[in-house]
Amino acid sequence: MSDSLLSLVSIEDYEKRKNNISGELFFGYPASSIVQAEKNLLSKDVRSIAYFCMEYGLAPSIYNTFNGHQPVSDENKFTHHEVFSNLRTMDYFFSLNIDKMLDMPIYSGGLGVLAGDTLKSAADMKLSMAAVGLLWSAGYFKQNFWFQYGQVPEEMHWDPYSYPGLVPLKNIIKIELEGAPVYLKLWKYFVYSYDKKHVVPLILLDADIKKNSDKIRKLTGQLYRSDSPWWKISQRAILGIGGIAALDELGYSIDMYHLNEGHAALAFIERTKGKFSYTCHTPVAAGHDRFYVQDLEKMLKKDELELLKKFGRDEGDPKVINLTTMALSVCEHVNGVSKKHGEVTRLQFPKYKNKIESITNGIHTHTWVSQPMAELFDKYKKAFGDWRQDPTLLKNAVQLKSDKGFRADLWSAHQENKKYFAKMLERWQIKENVFTVAWARRIAAYKRPSLIFEDPKRLLDIAKRVGQIQIVLAGKAHPMDNLGATHINEMLNAIDLLSNERESVRVIMLENYDTYFGKLLTNCVDVWLNNPLPPFEASGTSGMKAILNGVLQLSTLDGWVVEAADANIGKIFGYRHTGTEIGDEGNLRFSEDSKALYTSLEEMAALYYKTNESGRLNVDSQWIDMMINCISQAGYFNTHRMLSEYQQKIWKTESYAESPLRA
Ligand SMILES: *Cc1c(COP(=O)(O)O)cnc(C)c1O
Questions:
Q1: How confident is the model at residue 1 (pLDDT cuts 50, 70, 90)?
Q2: Tens digits of per-residue pLDDT, 455-495?
Q3: Among 55, 365, 441, which residue has the most ligand 1 atoms within 8 Å of its CB, making it the best to mutate?
Q4: How far is ligand 1, taken at its centre, from the CA of residue 472, in Å?
Q5: Which helix (H) or strand (E) holds 243?
Q6: What sign does the dihedral 168-172-176-178 (CA atoms) show?
Q7: Alpha-carbon distance values, 652 to 265, 336, 443 (Å)
Q8: From the CB of 441, is ligand 1 less than 6 Å away?
């Protein structure tokens, strides 16, 4: 047995890893699932998909945590988090200490978390899939906040060699950059299904080995390092060209290459005869990779460059290669990540409009559901059915609307989450019966992180008239994003400004937003605030995590929310995008949209305090109806439904799951 796993996966220094990897078990999980997945990928009779992405947020701190035989090493723990609040004295004396492991730090935000959730659902649905990414040895970055200075980024350290579930392979591949060899070591991480019977292997490429020069070794250091075109082009060449070489090295038989974002488009120049599909994830200009031909010329081979010129020429500037154009032109099937984003993408790239479809993003239900909610769904299994096996069954929540017992139980489950949160932040006097709103996501200007602080007086006025408000914030800005940093400064300044009003409005900002905090906040607050400038939020997924847990939405009409807006899942406010012009992502409409935000916030706070009168529940409140609508919508906004659509519309592979080797 052990031979079988070892003959299929050539683990480096196996002797050292023996206590965690045997014929039976892989870090406590069944090794037979790995053997089956590897055999499927090698077989020509099984149709397999290769999934490429620059980043993966796998969230092992909150889901499918591998158990090693030794405790998690200190480098791979992340326990200490500073808090910035308008109760400043507490911030000086205390910080949060949470005994948890570090997320494998190879992601920056929503794109990576979506990729991670996709692999988990692919495993749940028994797809034969191999994923390709990079082993970012310096992660994204570690975030420190300083009043006056704002965000101060620090280099991140972790230890891949002792990270539970991650294994170095003996395989090393070679690609060419600037006419010189670049060696890439392969690693594997196995993404297990919820029942642990299936896996999707994630192959990670690593330039940090002795055979490479010091400069090359740093290439897989920091994710999205963008100091110069050399960094960006090299990182994309490693993912695309290196990714194809890695799949070949492992002998996998791949039928469909899926590019999750244009970063991986160079894969095509390495495998021109393959079948490709592509998901575009953003209408924001900064999300589309554009390189001057003269920069690419220095780095790539002649024939590679010819293909880029043929298929990837930027429509606006012939001196530029645009990887989005490249992906759009070479892929047979293409999709945007929500209905609205599909429309916007067709407007942005009219030449390809006939092949651009929409498949709305989702989240992996098992990862993001809180314990109390999962128990509630189990208790009402008669109405829900086997929701673990098929998360789309959560749509049945609406059937329970008139069941007073369910309504009360739903509220209790929510309160249990909120109590847990209040306990964690007890020193900052967070209370379970106070109206609580969270805004947490990647800090980017179009997401308008500081919108709620546009008029602090108005915010205070609401709290004084309607009831106390707790606001929780978190998010990282890319270290080179000056505008993003400005938003962080504004948020920190607003916290400072509100320090004399903390009995009315309590504000807390948490450092180093990651999947752990993503889960904590989407599980535990009352209202999830989402205020991107339409139509620039392609989908957004954090709100989907919130609705799964009965957390109401306070949102602008953009991304996935457009499709759920009629289902009464909270309040929709602000500027609405219509027409055929995309509009200006620089015109953030702060003044008008903040007014609309305050009006909706006030209505929600008022309804909240009618529903929860200092701990006494009004079980007939509309608030509970909306919570039920949220859960019901979570039956749609999940990666299980999403992947069924990819199979039908993009990969055309409904049959992939029924392969002969599948037991
Ligand atoms: C879910 C998640 C995101 C994505 O959130 P959006 O709503 O799409 O901005 C980003 N970062 C983390 C850590 C997450 O968990």
A1: very low
A2: 999 999 999 999 999 999 999 999 999 889 999 999 999 99
A3: 441
A4: 15
A5: helix 243-249
A6: positive
A7: 21, 17, 36
A8: yes
